[in-house]
Amino acid sequence: xxxxxxxxxxxxxxxxxxxxxxxxxxxxxxxxxxxxxxxxxxxxxxxxxxxxxxxxxxxxxxxxxxxxxxxxxxxxxxxxxxxxxxxxxxxxxxxxxxxxxxxxxxxxxxxxxxxxxxxxxxxxxxxxxxxxxxxxxxxxxxxxxxxxxxxxxxxxxxxxxxxxxxxxxxxxxxxxxxxxxxxxxxxxxxxxxxxxxxxxxxxxxxxxxxxxxxxxxxxxxxxxxxxxxxxxxxxxxxxxxxxxxxxxxxxxxxxxxxxxxxxxxxxxxxxxxxxxxxxxxxxxxxxxxxxxxxxxxxxxxxxxxxxxxxxxxxxxxxxxxxxxxxxxxxxxxxxxxxxxxxxxxxxxxxxxxxxxxxxxxxxxxxxxxxxxxxxxxxxxxxxxxxxxxxxxxxxx
Length: 396
Ligand SMILES: Nc1ncnc2c1ncn2[C@@H]1O[C@H](COP(=O)(O)OP(=O)(O)O)[C@@H](O)[C@H]1O
Ligand SMILES: [Mg+2]
Hints:
Helix content is 58%, strand content 8%. It is α/β, with parallel strands linked by helices.
């Protein structure tokens, strides 16, 4: 979750806690105002971050608060007895708890992914490392009489293929892919983070045992499990310890358990040694090389209607320092701009029948304009930090 989303979530949480406190003390007007503020913050959060996995949970909470506001507005008289208030509060809290388990399950995506190994462009060394540590043991566990590592850390700048690689690995071994966002798991809206962690590992072990298939669990943004020093409190330490215990369980299981944990992070330096020790493979996923950028462009260009000026190698040279997903976004945004033109042209001609209007070819100039407007999402300072960390901690 982005820091802006986290901040807004914090605001909503503060108002909700305040509302429940006021409600308990019989401060009806105060409670109504605070519930409403919590709702406003949650709605803003949903609107600003429509892809947030927690949105369904926020919506449930909004509904609960709205219901409570209605009750408070409709029956002011019954409000005076403290017992009633306790009752109402308990019901809001109970509702929140009741939904917790299913919330976690809804948020966790368990699937047989359809991302293919070959669709991940470049990163050949990384694929080899993943083959050795996951694909071979999953296919022939009996060869690995000394066991094999279950924890793998993928680290590096955002948008370079960490999630994609983990999904492709699961599909290569025909296993389940469980994708969790650690930042969301830490959200108080999902209840007790420590329980979420153990429930998650339970879910992975269960699926693997029951259906006798390997399971790859990707824990994205894993650094958020460790909290940040600014608001380090007992809760975060407990979550981390629970996680380490679960990892030990996975690592100790010998060849009978086909569960692999891939942790991904953009900020490996936030991880401590206790954590790193459980992830005996630590693999850097770098920005795409020149060669990989050429392949990425070729792959996206093959789906564009373009003129002969458009050249993948030239484009690749223009955008040193950009990530794979930056490249995808650039190609997409170039396509959008000619589609925009197409529709404005159709409109200005008063042409209702679009079959006579031609979509024009994309040109090299279109690309240059788009690239000029877009900075790479990673800067040189960050790349230096990755490379320093790699010197000290990588293990492939
Ligand atoms: N190596 C790659 N090959 C092809 N596409 C990629 C690659 N890396 C990233 N992408 C594109 O960028 C998107 C985001 O990549 P993702 O795997 O989520 O990055 P990360 O997990 O490192 O932040 C992918 O869905 C894909 O479209
Ligand atoms: Mg990712």
